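Weekly structure sync, notes
Attendees: PL, DS, HV (note-taker this week)

Item 1: MFS transporter
DS walked through the input record. Source organism listed as Streptomyces shenzhenensis. Sequence as pasted into the shared doc:
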Amino acid sequence: MPSPYRALFAAPGTKAFSAAGFLGRMPLSMMGIGVVTMISQLTGRYGLAGALSATLALSAAAVGPQISRLVDQYGQRRVLRPATLVALVASAGLLCAAYFSWPDWTLFVCAAGIGSVPSLGAMIRARWAALYRGTPQLHTAYSFESVIDEVCFIFGPIISIGLSTAWFPEAGPLLAACFLAVGVFWLTAQRATEPEPHPREHHGGGSALRAPGLQVLVATFVATGAIFGAVDVVTVAFADERGHKAAASVVLALYAAGSCLAGAVFGLLRFSGAAERRWLLGICAMAVSMIPLLLVGNLSLLAVALFVAGLSIAPTMITTMSLIEEHVPRAKLTEGMTWVSTGLAVGVALGSSVAGWVIDTAGARAGYGVPAVSGAVAVVVGFLGYRRLSRPVTGRGGVVEQHSERKERHVA
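Item 1 (cont.): predicted structure, written out as tokens:
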């Protein structure tokens, strides 16, 4: 591991909370695809499987920011444990409902309950921010977390699908629930690195989403999520049309591997100048990288194109987290990070749905028009909201303090 990453873990407790966060994040990539695999095997109803997966994702998108808002107010331990218990009970209910063929409505109720799963990525990043706020190490920490996210998305679906198909249908979601339980309860047992809660009176009025800069980031990431959701669905259909459906997982793993590699390298670099300019450049790069997908004619070229496209993902995500830290009050940092993840999740649901309709209508190759259009929308939103991102915001400790903090960062 390069020395900047080694230096991250010099602080006591960092290795333990990072490991707990890794385990707790695995269900993010395992549960949805595991539910689809389980239901399709037990019932053969792909429509029901897709609807349950969408219910789970939308429930998490709606409930996640509220849980993170409570975390900012009362602390991670007091909120994450009961929220995780709700998600675990709902997961057990879903497995039982599927195994014993209970009515469909019970499946949907349980899928919605799983949406109370906390955003472990936001919790871990909040711990890094509490340790390294205002130092170059925070950039490296966000880069490391982006790499961990990609590792989860490379191996999580493979593990979940593999277990459910090779062992028994419920195995994938069951292991995801186990990872969640171990990760959350291990993390919340580590009190020394837990960020200090900010009581309600320190929060001001309303949600973190009232911050103009955060609104721009969330809106842009809805379009960005549509890119990810569409690419996943279209790539599976593209491989299926060419008689190599199983190869889709390898091609998509290369997409994530490109992001993982770029994130690791990005964390070694030190930047001067405004973070919002790097962010806008990253959004543009993601959009441009979708254009070659419209031109590829075989899986080999597609794999290369997706690997190159993945190189812009992690740097953009890392810069986004840095901008949240600038534009959201410290008392609402966890909630702010979760709102971006929510925007991404909503975009994934929209992108996969629209891409499926285009594939049915015009074929898989035409489906790559969906991520291309989504990328263009992200660029438009990014340019329209750029001025909001370049302005200091209130609520982090006063406008004067924010001006001085930004000035110090630019000088550094």
